[in-house]
Design brief:
The protein contains 3 helices and 16 strands. By secondary structure, the protein is of the alpha+beta class. Residues 1-14 have low confidence and may be disordered.
Length: 260
C-alpha cells in the first residue's frame, strides 16, 4: 500500500528561505557569493498536496499516472531528446568534453542533463523574500599583534625580536602562504606593489597555529617605517580540502623599531 507524506507535517523551517553568504576571494573587493539553503519538497510531498487539494482524486491513480509520466520522460531522454516538463522548463542533454584534441572528442567525455526554466518558474520565484541571512567568512583574522620585546600591543615591532599574532584561521598552509610586512602610504593604505613587501622567511617562523603565529621580525625592515602585517594562507575544514584560494588578513599599522 502506498504511503503519502503530507508536507504540512514538515518542520516550520522547511518554509523559510535562508541564504548563506561566503566572501568571494577571487574578486577581493568585499563581495560575496550566495547560496540558498535547499528545503526539498519530495515526490511524496507533491502527491500528498495534490490529493489534499483535490479530495475526490484517487491517490493511487494519481501516483500511477505520475510514475508513468516519469518513465516516459526518461525514455525520451534516453532517445537523445530534450523534454518539456509540464511547461515548467526543458530538460536537455549536454556533453561535458574532456578531450585534449578532436580525435578524442567522441570518447573522452560524458553526457549530462541540464534544465532551462520557463517564465512560469522565473515568475513564481520573483516575489520570494529572504527570511534569514547567514554570513560565513573563512578569511583569516588578526586580532592582536604583540611585540614581545617591549610588551606593547598593535604599536611597534622590534627588529630581530619575537612578534606574536593572535587571531583565527591563521595557520599557514597552501602554495604562496606566508607572513609579510607591507609598507603603507600616508593614508595608511597598503602598497599594492607586492615587490615592496618584506617576507618573513620560513626559518624565522617557529609557531604556526590556527589562533597564534610566532616569528622573528626581519632585520631587513626599515626602522621608523610603518607597515601592516599581512598573513596569506588557505583555509579549509577537516571534511573539505577543496578550497585552494589564498585568503588575506591585515593587521593594524605597526612601526618597525630598532633593538635596544
Amino acid at each position: 500500500m502506498a504511503t503519502f507524506e503530507n508536507v504540512s507535517t514538515l518542520n516550520d523551517s522547511s518554509s523559510m528561505l535562508s541564504v548563506t553568504l561566503h566572501s568571494n576571494p577571487l574578486k577581493g573587493d568585499g563581495s560575496y557569493c550566495a547560496r540558498v539553503t535547499r528545503n526539498v519538497a519530495t515526490f511524496n510531498n507533491i502527491l500528498s498536496e495534490v490529493q489534499k487539494d483535490n479530495v475526490g482524486l484517487d491517490p493511487y491513480m494519481l501516483q500511477f499516472a505520475t510514475i508513468q509520466m516519469q518513465k516516459k520522460i526518461l525514455e525520451f531522454l534516453q532517445q537523445g531528446k530534450a523534454v518539456n516538463v509540464f511547461d515548467l522548463g526543458t530538460l536537455y542533454i549536454a556533453y561535458k568534453c574532456n578531450a585534449k584534441n578532436k580525435d578524442e572528442a567522441a570518447t573522452n567525455g560524458s553526457f549530462v542533463v541540464r534544465f532551462s526554466p520557463t517564465t512560469l518558474i522565473t515568475d513564481a520565484v520573483s516575489t520570494l523574500s529572504i527570511d534569514k541571512v547567514t554570513y560565513v567568512d573563512n578569511a583569516p583574522t588578526i586580532a592582536l599583534i604583540t611585540d614581545v620585546a617591549s610588551g606593547e600591543d598593535d604599536t611597534n615591532v622590534t627588529l630581530g625580536s619575537v612578534v606574536k599574532i593572535n587571531g583565527s584561521r591563521l595557520k599557514l598552509r597552501g602554495e604562496g602562504n606566508g607572513i609579510f610586512f607591507a609598507p603603507v602610504d600616508v593614508d595608511q593604505n597598503i602598497n599594492s606593489d607586492k615587490s615592496t613587501w618584506v617576507s618573513v622567511s620560513e626559518s624565522l617562523i617557529f609557531r604556526n597555529m590556527p589562533s597564534e603565529l610566532n616569528f622573528i621580525a626581519p632585520d631587513t625592515l626599515e626602522a621608523g617605517k610603518d607597515y601592516r602585517i599581512v598573513v596569506l594562507t588557505t583555509y579549509y575544514s577537516r571534511n573539505d580540502t577543496s578550497n585552494k584560494n589564498l585568503l588575506q588578513a591585515e593587521s593594524a599599522v605597526v612601526t618597525a623599531v630598532p633593538k635596544n
